[in-house]
């Protein structure tokens, strides 16, 4: 049977809805706590007055760039940590109906270290891709009219972004359940799955992008206040849980995932796949 058919979007989507619905309260509470914590940390790091004072303090442009890079790096590490927490929570809720901090912490450090390694490798890859495509688009700019060239650049960047998101989500899905596979095996598996089983995940990523854009514009229209920002953050985090769970099912159903041996004490693990 074709591998794409094995990972039907609608079947996986329905399974994910059932998973989220059965654990709605726990995931909703987790989304609120994570959103409040991330918003607070982001505000403390990106406080406008502190940021402006920092820019005034540094007179050298190189120092300003260094300060901005340090802030962005810290925010990126916080994002990786939050993603690791979400991975731990999904693992917890996929093995138990109740929230268990021990299960969350069990996956937190391995997920964080793997995501950090993934980010380091892909930082180099993205830099190389950016340089190559900049040269290509510079040549295309001399050949095509400016409007056509801009449309081509936009479509190319969107396509690359979509497939890169699929790779990242597949990699995150591989971290949810404990596995004997090493980092590089998981790294290779997420690229293999993206190349062979991309239809359902690509559609899911596209839908999540559209929802995030809609939420962003709604929040922008409602005004820049803390209540709207928190609601937007909570909904985005909840959507993140849904996408992670969706990819977890895709990964669990794939031929690269290790199949757990279920016994009487962990029959609930089967809920992850069913």
Describe the protein in words:
With about 270 residues, the protein is an all-alpha fold. It has one domain. The protein contains eleven helices and no strands. The protein is globular and about 55 Å long. The N terminus and C terminus are likely disordered. It comes from Gilliamella apicola. Keywords: Membrane, Transmembrane, Transmembrane helix. This is Beta-carotene 15,15'-monooxygenase.
Number of strands: 0
* Main sheet overview: none
The parts where pLDDT drops under 50 for at least 5 residues are 1-6, 262-274
Determine the structural class based on helices, strands and strand pairing: mainly alpha
For the CA atoms, what is the radius of gyration?
A: 21 Å
| Quaternary structure of the protein | single chain
Distance between the termini: 19 Å
| Shape, principal axes of CA atoms | globular
Helix proportion = over 70%
Number of helices: 11
Report the sheet-strand fraction: under 5%
Q: What's the helix-strand series?
A: HHHHHHHHHHH
The mean pLDDT is 85
Count of the separate structural domains: 1
Organism: Gilliamella apicola
Keywords: Membrane, Transmembrane, Transmembrane helix
Protein name: Beta-carotene 15,15'-monooxygenase
Transmembrane segments: 24-46, 66-91, 112-145, 151-172, 202-223, 229-251
């Amino acid at each position: 049977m074709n591998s794409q058919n094995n990972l039907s979007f609608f079947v996986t989507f329905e399974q994910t809805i059932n998973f989220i619905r059965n654990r709605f309260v726990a995931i909703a509470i987790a989304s609120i706590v994570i959103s409040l914590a991330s918003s607070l940390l982001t505000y403390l790091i990106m406080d406008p007055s502190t940021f402006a004072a920092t820019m005034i303090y540094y007179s050298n442009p190189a120092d300003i760039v260094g300060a901005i890079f340090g802030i962005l790096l810290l925010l990126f590490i916080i994002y990786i940590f939050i993603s690791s927490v979400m991975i731990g929570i999904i693992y917890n809720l996929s093995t138990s109906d109740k929230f268990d901090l021990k299960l969350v912490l069990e996956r937190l450090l391995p997920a964080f270290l793997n995501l950090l390694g993934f980010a380091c490798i892909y930082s180099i890859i993205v830099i190389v891709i950016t340089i190559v495509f900049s040269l290509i688009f510079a040549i295309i700019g001399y050949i095509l009219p400016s409007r056509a060239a801009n449309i081509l650049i936009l479509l190319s960047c969107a396509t690359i972004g979509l497939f890169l998101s699929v790779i990242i989500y597949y990699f995150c899905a591989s971290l949810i359940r404990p596995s004997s596979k090493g980092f590089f095996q998981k790294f290779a598996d997420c690229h293999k799955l993206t190349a062979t089983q991309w239809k359902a995940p690509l559609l899911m990523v596209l839908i999540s992008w559209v929802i995030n854009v809609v939420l962003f514009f709604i929040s922008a229209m409602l005004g820049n206040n803390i209540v709207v920002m928190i609601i937007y953050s909570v909904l985005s985090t909840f959507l993140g849980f849904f996408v992670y769970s969706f990819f977890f099912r895709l990964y669990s159903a794939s031929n690269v995932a290790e199949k757990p041996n279920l016994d009487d004490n962990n029959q609930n693990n089967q809920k992850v796949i069913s």
